[in-house]
Write a structure and sequence with these properties.
two-stranded antiparallel ribbon; single chain; alpha/beta; globular; 8 helices; 8-stranded mixed sheet; 10 strands; Rossmann fold; 245 residues
Length: 245
């Protein structure tokens, strides 16, 4: 039976970690370094993880390979991306650790159960619904622009499915940091750590990665990460994070 991705060209990319590879659609939305950074900063000691808007499955695959997560539920609304994520899970022999679930983030508690997860991780669309031009094909627009579940809805859904003390990890643009933290605090998610990510030392921070704990105690730590040196080589801190050395 023909599936949605049979009519699109696929590209196989090397994740440069223990032989992991990832199929992607060059004509659709491909993962960025933000997703890789988020996956590498996500801490999982035990329990289940939910990856909101998994796309190709990049974050789920890396977390499965690098942490002690019991099970990872990769939630994705778009059917074509669900099929791709399943292909990547099977290709990397991670079917015992990752389950791809087709559905909307807004319905996460109904699909997966309230207070069922120890960790929620999300690399959401960065742009608000209706902001800017959305002339891309629908699959790309849904990856870049908020749709049925906006930033506020993502945080609310995460709070619903997280257990007491569970963690939400999210990456977003710096200009939306105050908004993100505000939504977290309104949902009993106490921000414990924020990492400002600088592409280079002499450049402004572009994105941040936040860790928030459900019903956590007050107190936040601020970290910084510079990804590249001026000559274009990766910094030592970034190499350690990517586990390149």
């Amino acid at each position: 039976m023909e599936t949605a991705f049979d009519t699109l060209k696929l590209r196989l990319d090397d994740l440069q970690y223990e032989g992991l590879m990832l199929w992607q659609y060059p004509s659709l939305y491909c993962f960025t370094s933000d997703a890789v950074l988020l996956a590498n900063l996500t801490k999982v000691k035990k329990g289940d993880v939910v990856d909101f808007g998994t796309g190709s499955g990049i974050i789920a695959v890396l977390i499965a390979a690098k942490t002690n997560a019991a099970k990872i539920f990769a939630l994705e609304k778009q059917k074509v991306m669900c099929e791709l994520a399943k292909k990547n899970v099977e290709y990397n022999r991670l079917s015992d650790k990752i389950e791809v679930v087709e559905g909307d983030i807004a319905d996460a508690d109904k699909l997966l159960g309230k207070e069922s997860a120890s960790v929620v991780v999300c690399n959401p669309p960065y742009f608000k619904k209706g902001s800017g031009a959305t002339r891309e094909r629908e699959e790309i627009a849904l990856s870049r622009h908020e749709s049925s579940c906006d930033l506020k809805g993502i945080v609310e859904s995460a709070s619903k499915i997280l257990r007491w003390g569970g963690a939400l990890y999210i990456v977003h643009k710096v200009e939306r940091m105050a908004e993100t933290i505000g939504y977290m605090q309104a949902c009993s998610l106490e921000v414990k750590n924020v990492t400002l990510v600088y592409p280079k030392e002499n450049k402004a921070a572009d994105v941040f990665i936040a860790e928030a704990r459900k019903n956590g105690a007050a107190g936040m730590k601020l970290d910084t990460l510079v990804v590249y040196n001026d000559d274009g080589t990766m910094t030592e801190d970034a190499k350690k994070l990517y586990a390149k050395e």
